[in-house]
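Weekly structure sync - notes
Attendees: PM, LS, DV (DV joined late)
Agenda: review two folding runs queued last week.

Item 1: First target. Sequence and structure tokens pasted below for the record.
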Amino acid sequence: MDRQQLADFLRRRRADLRPEDVGIAVGARRRVTGLRRGEVADLAGMSPDYYTRLEQGRGPQPSEQMLGALARALRLTADERDHLYRISGRNAPGRPPLDTHVAPQLQRVLDCLDHTPALVLSSLAETLVQNRLAATLFGNCTRFTGLARSGIYRWFTDPAERAVYPDAHHPRQSRAHVASLRLAYGLAGTDSRAGHLVRALGKESDEFRQLWRHHEVATRFDDHKTLLHPEVGAMELDCQALLTEDQSQTLLVLSAPPRSEAAEKLALLRVLGHEQFAARSPEV
């Protein structure tokens, strides 16, 4: 690990960003043009002291998970992310067709979305990043590890994953998950993470095995969803999907018509979400 290179790289990338690049409102009395250390720490989900030590060349070797969070916070390109890993003494992640580094163009759009739920998904339905309102609606979906990172895997193996959808909508959602996994599997091949997921689900879920035999193939996102939340109940939401050019990642945006009941419920969830996040202490 080259602590001085890491410190210099972090300082320069932080200085290159502007608050508006990451969705931070600019106050009239702001003296710095780039981001503050505390702002980067908040974006990466780490304590300000930990990040400060990294910039001062006296921090511990960051874990791969922490480096991934820094790459997202600093809006690094894939090449910059790989450089960050190498100077930190870690192997840079491979770049298979199913890359989990958030596409910068999707991250920029997500940064502008504060008043409606939005999240970036990989082609395996892994939540790569989500805004606060999406976390309030779906829970923190970035916390999972292993196969459970995939929302498709959780859908067929964890009953709690289905609680956000009405029972009557479960069959349609199951078909959509299998169809999108079939597409990812066809693109990436049998030896890929998609192939591993298919084999695991084939062993664990009768429903998955039956649907897999139908050979449905599609990137599917319903343009209208009914979602359930324990605090505010059912919400009728519109759903829009923005895909990267290679279709490896999707920005999913949920919204409600102005002055509708669902819009009022989303406004209430924004309040609940801010209270939940304010109550959390910074983590390292």
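Item 2: Second target, run right after the first with the same settings.
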Amino acid sequence: MDCIFCKIVEGTLPSKKVYEDERVLAFHDIKPEAPVHLLIIPKKHIPTMNDAAAEDLPLIADMHRAAQQIAKEQGVAETGYRLINNCNPDSGQLVYHIHYHLLAGEKLGPLNGK
């Protein structure tokens, strides 16, 4: 498998980690689109949100709990943050390993740009 996020989980590619536990990893995006732009991934490879099975729901919940903790640690929980999952090409998904983008650190505009 040639998944960049799996390589980050394995430690064969570097990342600037901000959170890690036995099931979830979070690190800085290499092309940030906000002052705070972090990626939250499961350590288990799941290509898209459509591929998440019922038994993966606790893992998805772990990702959400990690997002809450990370937002607090980054000092953006109270001011606000955006948590985004892109699923498949029309959404803009580039890496086929489910992940959330946590964006914050400034007032974010509408998603549609209007």
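Discussion on item 2: DSSP finds two helices and five strands in the chain.
Action: LS to circulate a short write-up before next sync.
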